[in-house]
Amino acid sequence: MAEEFNVEGMLDMYLFENGQLLEQLQETVLEQKDAECFDEDTINEIFRTMHTIKGSSGIMMFDNVTAISHKLEDVFYYLRESHPQNVVHEELVEHVLQVVDFITGEMDKIQDGSPVDGDPADIIAELDRFLEEIKNGAVKEGKELPKANVSEEPKHFYIAPVANSASHFYKIYITFFPDTDMANVHAYKTVYALKELAEDLLYEPEDLISDESSITTLLEEGFRILLQAQCSEADIRQVIKTGYDIEKVDIFECKAEEFLQGFDFGDHQEPEIDLQSSVEEIEAKAQAEQEGAEEQEAEKNEKPEKIEKPEKPKMAPGDFVIQSKSPGKPKKLAKDKPKTEKAAFISVNVQKMDQLMDLIGELVISESVVLQNPDLKVPGLNLDNFNKAATQMAKIATDLQNVIMSMRMVPLTNLFQKMNRIVFDVSRKLGKDIEFEMIGEHTEVDKNISEKISDPLMHLVRNAVDHGIETNEERAESGKTDKGKVTLAAKTEAGKVWITVSDNGKGLDRTKILAKAKKQGLLDPDRLESSYEDKEVFQFITLPGFSTNEQVTEYSGRGVGMDVVVQNIQSIGGTLEIESTAGFGSSMILKIPLTLAIIDGIVMETGTTSFVVETSFIKQFVRVTEEMMIHEPTGEEYVMIRDECYPVLRIGDWYGLEDYRSNVEEGMMLLFEVEGKTICLFVDKLIGKQEIVVKPIPPYIKKVKGISGCTQLGDGSIALILDPSGLID
User: Fold this and answer.
1) Residue 682, helix vs strand vs coil
2) In terms of DSSP H, where are the helices of 372-453?
3) Spacing of C-alpha 542 from chain mean position
4) Would 468 disulfide with which of 54, 145, 420, 464, CB 3.0-4.6 Å?
5) Residue 470 carries which DSSP code?
6) Average pLDDT over residues 594-619
């Protein structure tokens, strides 16, 4: 039957929703990893999460994911029902994270189109052993074990009706948002969740999965559910919540007789007006109805101890009495209540966001082409009306750009949580007692930036745990009584995001780094070692093949990693600064742009070539005279500005351009400050400030030092985007 409908959309929904569940599960577990045990709310949350993943995986026929989810669900079912005291919390945390890793790995295979063939047997065996140990401890203490957590195949959930005085009967009407994707899957998951509460459960439309027409029915007519259960309306609303897929949930408690009438929400229908009968016939009919109502009221007051439901017609699961009933008036029912506000969030494919961002970039370029068109520079033209319209268009384009940029911004929370997991795993393997702290994890960056800094951040965090923090014995010997601590902090400053990885370990050894640098021939023979500033010394560890670790471990010591970190950070226009105090710890500070797509830049010209540099790099513009210049015999040039001496780089000489101005009094100096270093860039002239759409250099062109990309200017010409970090040796 699975071949009769398209599962591609269901697969996307499965990956998206379960991915979110796993991220939240890992975050919850890591938050309580150092506690004595999980609190009751967390146990219930983990149980519900695994139950949901088990159900959706069963629908998609990923049997290995279903099996391992059910086994972890068994563990937390027992914890929820029995509240045992003999649970080793650290071991339980490791088991949960093992299951999360396994399911995440299988979902990655699904994403890549690979076979979902992971074998969970070993993890399931470990969970069985762990659960058996807990149960054996409970038996020795004389506790009674709860009934088994039985798993059912995800088919139609029809439960034989057995009602008693504690049973309640509900008619539930769910309204989905009109733009909800795969509404049948959401409806099926709702039914699966209600199964935990149900004594009797019927729903319409019945065939949710194999009949694709059910999606149209759900969106146009809603989802109707009949529920018999020993629970309150509040319990049901805990299971069925409004969100990005469900717009509204109406729940009506009814009598057993009304329950058997099926999906006729009769209590809420408008009264019918009889225009055919005579007045006498209408009065006689009303009298008979009143007498019948009094008899029913008298029977109800007898209050029998057990409610016997009228016999239902014989039927197979799924062949409900609702088929002979009219569907009622659910639309009128929804109209009677005030309309709720539409969901605040929707999910959007990131490729569509990228396409939209590209179109905005083209719009910015087109705007520059229009506003800087040479035809507008004809003398005598009255452009007042045009300028007003152009100003309005520019405002709208800027607002549109800001909105799209904000849509691409994502918080660093998920990325920081991954680092939390790394600290947990590595510290456990190395036997170090380390605390992890997150500050400013809600800081937002462009999604592409977030993805590109993931690997560099992972290297820095691993290094901090591996050879930044001392072993427990070393900390005790040095008189440190506090635990090892790794802090990951983020903040926004001057149009950039600052991400700091700091530790309270032993810090960097300046002497050892200098000795290694001297051995590798990195030091200037004409310069004293004492003249090197600490920042200069610490930058040596970012060079390829440089490592002061005497022992190679799984995480460091091979001299590979820090150079890759710097390359990756520089590729997105970022920088890395290192601060350290011997004996007290180190801080690695990443300064990265908020976005890569559109930047504010200064357009300049040298010879016949145009260049652009991001405004945040420029400290000031200076016009200089020849008297301010210093010319060294070696050819190096310096300029004195307010009693400070700065090296000068002539962009024309650097790239071998022709027809550029050599006289400094005819050009302009731009004072750059990058990574604590300052340099003056000499260009022919400044063109102006402009919003720049960053385009990558085509792969068939050899990478040029100091060039990070290109852009199109308003006149249609191409300008090269300068990377100041590549201009400073």
Assistant:
1) strand
2) 384-408, 413-430, 447-452
3) 30
4) 464
5) P
6) 84
Name the token pair of 674.
Answer: 């990058």
Give the SS3 label for residue 111. helix
Contact between 426 and 475 (Cβ < 8 Å)? no
> For residue 246, what pLDDT band results from cuts at 50, 70 and 90?
confident
- Provide the 10 A C-beta neighbour count for residue 515: 14
Angle value at C-alpha 166, between 161 and 171, nearest 5 degrees: 60
Taking alpha carbons only, the member of 245, 302, 214, 312 closest to residue 20 is 245
Q: Is the dihedral of CA 47, 49, 55, 57 positive or negative?
A: negative
Beta bridge partners of 693: 598
Among the ranges given (175-184, 281-290, 344-353, 496-505), the one the predictor scored with the smallest mean pLDDT: 281-290
**Lowest model confidence (mean pLDDT) among 126-140, 332-346, 382-396, 452-466:** 332-346
CA–CA dist 41, 76 (Å, integer): 12
Q: Who's near 122: CB < 8 A, 6+ residues apart? A: none
Q: What one-character-per-residue DSSP string does 304-336 give?
A: -SSPPPPPPPP--TT--GGGGS----HHHHHHH
Of the two residues 511 and 545, the one the predictor is more confident about is 511
What confidence category does residue 316 fall into, taking pLDDT thresholds of 50, 70 and 90?
A: very low
Give the C-alpha separation, 450 to 596, whole Å.
11
Give pLDDT, residue 487.
Answer: 93
Q: Which helix (H) or strand (E) holds 78?
A: helix 63-82
CA atoms of 548 and 555, how far apart (whole Å): 14
DSSP 702: P
pLDDT digits (tens, 9 = 90+) for 62-120: 889 999 999 999 899 888 888 888 788 888 999 999 999 999 999 988 888 888 888 99
Contacts of 415 (CB under 8 A, 6+ apart): 450, 453, 454, 457
